[in-house]
Amino acid sequence: MVQKYQSPVRVYKHPFELVMAAYERRFPTCHLIPMFVDSDVISEETSEDRSFHKIERRCKLDVDAPRLLKRIAGVDYVYFIQKNSLNHRERTLHIESHNETFSNRVIIHELCCYSVHPENEEWTCFEQSASLDIKSFFGFESTVEKIAMKQYASSIKKGKEIIEYYLRELEEEGITYVPRWSPCPPSPTKPVVPVVIPALPITPTISIEAPPESVNEIQVCKEGSSPTGSLNDALVASPDDKLDADYIKRYLGDLTPLQESCLIRLRRWLQETHKGKIPKDEHILRFLRARDFNIDKAREILCQSLTWRKQHQVDYLLDTWSSPQVLHDYYTGGWHHHDKDGRPLYILRLGHMDTKGLVRALGEESLLRHVLSINEEGLRRCEENTKIFLCCWTCLVDLEGLNMRHLWRPGVKALLRIIEVVEANYPETLGRLLILRAPRVFPVLWTLVSPFIDENTRKKFLIYAGNDYQGPGGLVDYIDKEIIPDFLGGECMCEVPEGGLVPKSLYRTAEELENDEIRLWTETIYQSASIFKGAPHELLIEIIDASSVITWDFDVCKGDVIFNIYHSKRAPQPPRKDPLATHGITSPAGNNVQLIDKSWLLGQDYSMVESPLTCKEGESVQGSHVTRWPGFYILQWRFHSMPACATTNLPRVDDVLATLQVSSHKCKVMYYTEVLGSEDFR
C-alpha cells in the first residue's frame, strides 16, 4: 500500500541565499527537533568554480514510537540517507532522502526543492513530494500506518516555522543579506568550502514524525507507478499547475497539509486527464470533503458529476431555463437575505406546497430542472460571498400544513429523485437545514427520505416540532430577528409565494407529461452508451462528400475503452440484436449497437482509418478526422481488455467467459458527433 504526499508551493519572502543560511543552522542537530539526534557526512564534492556542492549524509533519528514496537523491531534509532545538491548558479537546492533502516520492509522516498520564486527573485519557494510503502512490519503494518498518520500530520507544519525561527535569529544578529554566488578563479593555496545545506531526512519508518519541511502522504493511493517516477513528475510540473499555500489559506480556508495534498493531487489529475472545463478549486474541494478526502472516491463522484453537467448542459441552466408560470405561482420557495453566519438563506414552505398538483401539472422533469436552477443560483450566490471560505447556504423548511396528501406516491418518488440528483452533484453546498413546525406525519416522511441523504448532510439537520423554534436554541440562534419571516412570527415581509392548490384545469394528461419529459431529457446533444466485453458500441456515419470532417466529443464515464474509426464501401446491415440477450442479459436502455458483422474481414470488407486510441476512465476526448473517400464510416468504442497471456498467446480465461460475466466487465461512454461538409468551410 503506497501513501503519497504532494505539498503546495510554500513561499518565504526572503532571498534564496538568506533562506539557505537559515537552513544551515539546523545542523548537525537542532534543538527544535528533539528526534534528530545526529548526522555524519558520508561523501562530499564541490565543483571547481564552487557553483555546485553535493553532500551525502547519514542521519540518526530517535523515533517516537511505542516501547513495545521498538522492542519487537529491535532498534532504538533509525537511519536515513540524504543527498543534497546545492546549485549556486541556478539558485536551487534539491534534496533526496530514503530510509536505510528496514529498507527491505519499508520504502520511504522524499524529494524536496528550494528555488527562486518565478515572479520575484527576492523570494524563495519550497516544494516537496514523498511516498511511503509499508511492505511488511512484523504484522504491525496497520499500527505503523496509524502512528504515521497521527504523528506526521501533527508535525508537518514545523518546517516553515523552524526556517522562520532561524531567519529571525539571523536578523537579531544583524545578518539581513547574503551575497549571491559569482564566478571567480579558485585559490590554489586557500580553497573556499561552500556552505553545506543538508536537508533533514523524512521521518522514521516507525513513527514518521515530520522533521522540518519533510512531509509524507497519508491518503492511500492506488496508482501503480514507482515512487521515484511519480515524485519527479510532481516536482517538474509547470508553475501554472501549482497551488500556492498562501492562496489556499486565503481563499479556501485552513486545510491540513494532508488535505492540501489531496486537493493538489486531484486537481493535477484533472488537468492531465480531463480535457474539458476544469472545475474551480472550491468545487473540487467540496467533493473531497464529501468523501472525507478519500481521493479515489472523490475522483469517482466528481467525474460522474462533470459528465452529468456536460450531458445536460447544467452550466448554462440559469441562462436557458425559464420556469413555467405555474411554478412562479405555486412553488413555495425563494431566497431570503442571509443567516447569522453570512450564508445565503433559502426558505421552502413545503407544508403549503401542493406537490401532487405540481407533479400533475408539470411532471417530474420540470420540477427537477427547477430545483437544479435553485442550486445553481445558490452556487452563484456563494461565489459572490467572499467573506466565507467554501461558502454554502442555509435552508429553512416550514412544515406547517404537511399532511398525508404530501405522501402521494408519485410525489414522494419525485422528491427522492431530486434528493438523489442533488446529493450526487452538489455536495457540501448545504451548511444547515432548519426544519420548523414538524407535524406528527413528519416521521413517516423522514423514514422514507432519510436513507437517501448522506450521513454528513443529515448531521446538518435541526428539527423543531410545534413552536419549539421560538425558544432558546431556536431560530434566533441562526437568523437575525430582523429578517425572520412574518409567517414565523417575525416582522420581515417574505416574498416566498404562499402556494395553495394547483387548479385541476392546469393538470396535464399522462401522455402529455411523458412527451414533455422526453423532450427535457433529450435536449442534450449527447448520447450515452454502455459497452461490454464482446459487445462494443458502434455508430454509423454515411459520407457523400469525400472532403468532409467528422468530429467527436465523448466522455468515458466508467472503465477504460478503445476508440476506433473504420471505413467501408458496403453499408452495414441494420443493427443486430444485442448478443448479450442470448444469455438473458440486456444492455441498459438498449443503447448498445453493433454494426460490423462477424463475417467481415478487416482489410477486405472494411479498413481502419485512425490508429486505435486508448481512453481511461474519467477522460474527456475530442478529435476530428478528414475523410478521404465517400462511403460508410463506423465509430467504435470497445472494452479495453488485458492482453493475452505472454507465454501461451492464448486468450485469458476471463475473456472466454466474458459473455457470462458481463456485470463486472462494463464500460460507459457519453458521446456527440458531427459531420462538416466542404460547403461548411466556404
From TrEMBL:
**What does the record list as GO biological process?**
negative regulation of RIG-I signaling pathway
Q: Which residues form the CRAL-TRIO domain?
A: 323-496
User: What would be an example GO MF term here?
Assistant: RIG-I binding
CDD domains per record: SEC14
Signal peptide limits: none
Q: Which residues form the GOLD domain?
A: 522-675
* Official protein name in the record: SEC14 like lipid binding 1
Give the organism the record lists.
Cyprinus carpio
